[in-house]
Design a protein that fits this description.
By secondary structure, the chain is mostly helical. Helix content is 75%, strand content 1%. The chain is built from 21 helices and 2 strands. Helix 2 (36-65) packs antiparallel against helix 3 (69-95), helix 3 crosses helix 5 and helix 3 runs antiparallel to helix 8. The longest helix has 56 residues, at 128-183. 45% of the residues are buried.
């Protein structure tokens, strides 16, 4: 009689944050395997990050090294506050957030919310931006140590750790919550309007701050730094300085503020993380179109592209137009154009306004000029087009359908330019008209339109080639701001190359505005339209030939690697 053998069950191992860190390192290694260009870009990103970190470290350590305790609090409060604000806003505007470990992939695993949040937070620490921030903030530890000894240095180090965790948790919580908001079609329009209004207010707020700084003295600025030091933006960074100045009780309270802020952010992140793992937010039952006038094919064309021909070009324009409206990742880029496009012209052209007069606050735009307006419009036009620097990355593996269908490269790029312009060109017109009204210079509208058209058209041409040669994959994530590890530097590098190239090609419009005087007010718009339109068509022609020869390689570049 056979005796059954009982095999003892291996006790389940508890999942810890270290497992997430190891998983991220393994995923990074797999992504770099056989991808020499990715390794080179990652190394270049590390070098740039270390260089900026060294500069930041020196700036934050200067008060301690110079023995200037008076300025230590201001540097800690304002420098730390800018670090925190940068972590909150830059992922939404430029670089995205690193999500090598997509939270949606853990949805079916028996992991508690606490384990998932702590594990993803620990994995987020293993990144170049986190390392650069830690090195930069270490300058505050040096300042506290030199001014107050080892006790102040230890408290400062604890504050830096808490501040870094607040930055990471805040960036993740904000992008996750904003991603969930953008997935809901009922609130996407409201989100765009609110962000545009917020962007419009940034310029006047900046002017108020600059005017206040000009009229204040260092003692009053020191008082502002003390107030900022008690907010979540400055509390963790100023704790070490408080110990150095003999305010140990204040340092303890500030550390508690930082811990409470971290707890609130982690709770917020866990809630938005759950919604991201569940899936797309529902916007209610789908509406059935009333009638089928024009046939089934006509129903595929949005009203905005009713002018398009019912051929391959028109079908591509209609498809891209729907994608830009419905894809949360693409909508996030459109909102970025609206936000920065309003902020930069206001900041540049209204920066010389004065608020202190005998009768009270009054505006005066003496610093603005046609050349300065043209320069700001060139930046806006180049920024608007830079969204297409990785336009094939939005498609991912679905680009295979275009490859199989044998879509010519020139047709593909012209259609993508046309669909993108349907959304962007009206925004650029609104920006130009609004700036002309604010400046009280309606006669400059032609100069603004010409510079915008030239820079935007040149940007379309340059980004058409960049998108074919420098495409990279985007993670299959519900977060529209998510990027694979190392892709943030790639995105920043492509953005820099594209914007610099577009600005250089459009520089003649700044020269014309500076040298031709009133004549340029009449010539700028028609010349700009012809210049930008010709550049866009030429860019589509040249980049289209390149696309025809490397479609398989492009598909491999934009396909996410699991």
């Amino acid at each position: 009689m056979a005796v059954p053998v009982t095999v003892p069950e291996r006790p389940a191992r508890r999942v810890s944050a270290w497992h997430f860190v190891r998983l991220k390192l393994r995923v990074l290694g797999n992504n770099f395997r056989g991808q020499t260009w990715r390794v080179a870009l990652f190394v270049l990103g590390v070098l740039f990050g270390l260089w900026f970190a060294a500069v930041g470290f020196f700036l934050l350590a200067v008060p301690g090294l110079a023995g200037e305790s008076r300025y230590a609090l201001m540097i800690a409060a304002f420098g730390g506050g800018l670090l925190t604000l940068g972590w909150l806003l830059l992922p939404l505007v430029f670089f995205g957030v690193d999500e090598t470990l997509d939270p949606a992939r853990f949805a079916l695993l028996p992991l508690s919310r606490r384990t998932l949040v702590t594990g993803l937070l620990a994995a987020a620490l293993v990144s170049v931006p986190a390392l650069a921030t830690a090195i930069t903030a270490a300058g505050l530890v040096v300042t506290a140590g030199v001014l107050g000894g080892w006790a102040a240095a230890l408290v400062g180090a604890l504050g830096v750790v808490l501040g870094l965790l607040v930055c990471l948790a805040g960036a993740r919580a904000l992008t996750s919550a904003f991603a969930a908001m953008l997935r809901s079609r009922r609130v996407r329009d409201l989100a765009a309007v609110l962000l545009a209004v917020l962007a419009a207010l940034l310029g006047p707020l900046q002017l108020l701050v600059l005017a206040a700084v000009r009229q204040t003295d260092w003692d009053r600025l020191h008082g502002v730094a003390r107030v900022v030091g008690w907010t979540p933006f400055g509390a963790p960074w100023t704790a070490g300085v408080d110990v150095a100045e003999g305010r140990a009780g204040a340092a303890v309270v500030k550390l508690l503020i930082a811990v409470a802020t971290l707890g609130v952010l982690l709770f917020w992140w866990s809630r938005s993380l759950e919604s991201a793992m569940v899936g797309t937010a529902s916007s209610g039952p789908a509406r059935t179109p009333r009638g089928v006038a024009g046939g089934a094919v006509a129903q595929l064309f949005p009203r905005a592209v009713g002018w398009a021909r019912r051929d391959r070009f028109g079908a591509l324009v209609a498809r891209e137009c729907r994608y830009w409206w419905r894809d949360a990742r693409r909508r996030a880029n459109l909102i970025t154009v609206a936000v920065v496009g309003v902020f930069v012209p206001v900041m540049v052209n209204l920066g010389g306004f004065s608020f202190s007069t005998e009768g009270g606050a009054a505006f005066g735009g003496a610093d603005s000029s046609p050349a300065l307006v043209s320069l700001s419009m060139i930046f806006v036009g180049a920024l608007a087009a830079v969204t297409l620097a990785n336009q094939f990355g939005f498609d991912g593996s679905s680009y295979a359908a275009n490859l199989i269908a044998g879509v010519p490269g020139r047709v593909e790029l012209r259609a993508r330019m046309a669909a993108f312009s349907i959304y962007v060109v009206p925004m650029l017109l609104v920006i130009a008209v609004a700036l002309a009204v604010v400046l009280g210079r309606p006669e400059w509208l032609g100069v603004m339109g010409g510079a915008l058209s030239a820079a935007y058209g040149c940007g379309l041409a340059i980004n058409a080639l960049v998108s074919v040669l420098g495409a990279y994959s985007l993670p299959e994530s519900s977060n529209p701001f998510a990027l694979n590890s190392g892709a943030g530097f790639t995105k920043g590098l492509l953005t820099l190359v594209s914007m610099v190239g577009s600005a250089v090609v459009a520089v003649p419009f700044v020269v014309g505005a500076a040298l031709l005087g009133d004549v340029w007010l009449w010539l700028a718009l028609p010349v700009g339209l012809a210049y930008g339109g010709g550049a866009a068509l030429l860019g589509a022609y040249m980049a289209g030939d390149t696309l025809d020869h490397r479609q398989p390689e492009l598909l491999a570049d934009v396909t996410p690697r699991r």
